[in-house]
Amino acid sequence: MPSQPPIPPLLAPYLAPTPSSSLTLLTSTLGATSNWLVLRFIHAALKDYGRGGGDGRQETRIVLVSWLRDANFWREGGRKLGIDSQRIWVLDALSNDIGINASSLAATEHAIIAAITTPRKAPADSARIILILDGLDFLLAASACPTIQVIDFANALREHVHATVVTTLADSPLIQSPSIPLEISHSAFVMSMAHQARIIMSVRELDSGGAKDVSGVLRISRGGAWLQEEEIENEMTEGQEVLYFMGGDGGVRVFERGA
């Protein structure tokens, strides 16, 4: 098991429980991936909602669709955190040629809905489903789908689940100064997701370059769908940035600058 707790204390208020119909946006860069955040979302969701049963809590299932990493990657990462793989349905989009071209997007939607509605241990209509779309922006480049089509695709899937997590790249050239059609489409996609999101969690490399005891920077901010009356216990200052360090054993330490 990792030397660090599965859920870093600074992150705990933001990971679970996820409100009904909410969207969480995770952005990353080529040098700082968000897969460790995804795994901690999964761990927190399964832990907080429990296994159902006599205590009145609903069974929670995770449907993880990844266009970037295969099923073995997620199972191994989950194993290190003690995540029950039986409660996660991993749909390896690349290995199954899902959503690789625009004409297959409808088939992709049907395949994901089938994974959502097919019961594992608990009846599908009684389970609380968390949908994770890892690398959804890949469709913009691989399938040449119009931005609005990918957005509509994500929104259609959201109607079938309790809450959704979307991961996407957000490197500066793609967001701050788009010039070619793909960059413009990607920027529009990320902006739309941010507007619909409740919370945005962004990871990037250190501005000063690499460091042996810091893997990157994490920024947490409120998205366009944040409710003004909503409060999070122990919430960090809006837009606050913290640092994180990923250990070789899979553990992650999240800490404030200077700590």
Profile the largest sheet: 9 strands, mixed
Lateral arrangement of strands in the main beta sheet? 3-2-4-5-1-6-7-8-9
How many E-type strands? 9
Count of DSSP-assigned helices: 8
- Classification by helices and strands: alpha/beta
Helix content: 25-40%
- What Rg do the Cα atoms give? 18 Å
Low-pLDDT windows of residues? 49-56
Estimate what percentage of residues fall within beta strands: 15-25%
N-to-C CA distance = 24 Å
Q: How do the helices and strands follow one another from N- to C-terminus?
A: HEHEHEHEHHEHHEEEE
What keyword list fits this structure?
8 helices; alpha/beta; about 20% strand; about 260 residues
List the helices and strands and how they pair.
Blueprint: H1 12-15, E1 22-28, H2 35-49, E2 60-66, H3 71-80, E3 88-92, H4 105-117, E4 128-134, H5 138-142, H6 147-158, E5 163-169, H7 172-175, H8 181-196, E6 199-204, E7 216-222, E8 241-246, E9 252-255
